[in-house]
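Exercise: predict the fold of this chain.
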Amino acid sequence: MGLKDAWRRRVARLEGTSPRLHRFLASPESPYPVLREVAAFAIVLALGAAILWGSMGQPLGDSPVVVVESGSMMHCANGVGPQGNACESERYGRIGTIDPGDLVFVKDIDRPSDVGTKAGKDSRHYGRAGDVVVYQPDGDSRRTPIIHRALFWLQINGQSETFTIEELGLHEVTTLNVPALQALGLQLGYAEALRSMEAGPEDSGFITRGDNNIEADQGPHSNIARLPVKAEWILGKARGEVPWLGLVKLKFSDWTVGTQNYRNAPSDSKTMLLLSLALLLGGPYVVERIARTRRERRAAAQGETAAPDEKVP
């Protein structure tokens, strides 16, 4: 006996013991087919969430998914950038890059060595070398987390007396005004800024930057972060994405908070969102209608076959 037949027999037994449950599981009449599809979808979502939390290693209190709000990680289709009117975004947000409205999965980290850097030419993620990390700027949990690429680890020696960047072969240098660092986006004068803050070895961390930004997040004139990103400030590193669906949250935020994130998102991504929602919400109904039509045709055909032939007098 196949699994399908065994399931049908179990459901049939419910007709006498639990007629309401039997109607829900077996009735072809409206609205039961739609309710079954919604329930199945909810179960799949719950199982998917459990698998996602487990695979990402995030504690239950921390979300394994974030919604990208800005275009700071977008890649330019025309090869022009960084962020600005000259940058034409890749059509439909391209899977494999990070765009406004993307749902990005976030894997937990435990130590700095869990994060690869652009300068270290570690494995490519989202089109370029190095890990993309989600972090709290300056460790402030009240601020919106930032999702940007890790450029290199900046080791601060003493009270900002010297600095070491292993990935670039810089050891105990007294200045960060180095062409290799400026090429990665570090602003001039950052060593002096760290000295004015009396930063010490405990303030060592990652220097980060959005792929579509000119400058690093950390700098003497930055409005993103003052200090390098410590490992304990990192909520996780990005691993995988679901494009477009996060635009629903951005639209809701535009209505309730007054942000402009949805309005500023690429129009082609909004088109793909509408198509995706139509498929997700309308797909189960269409499948059920097709299945119901086939069942009715089979029943009609069986009825015609079983009917006795009429004799001509």
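Check your answer against the key: The two ends are 46 Å apart (CA to CA).
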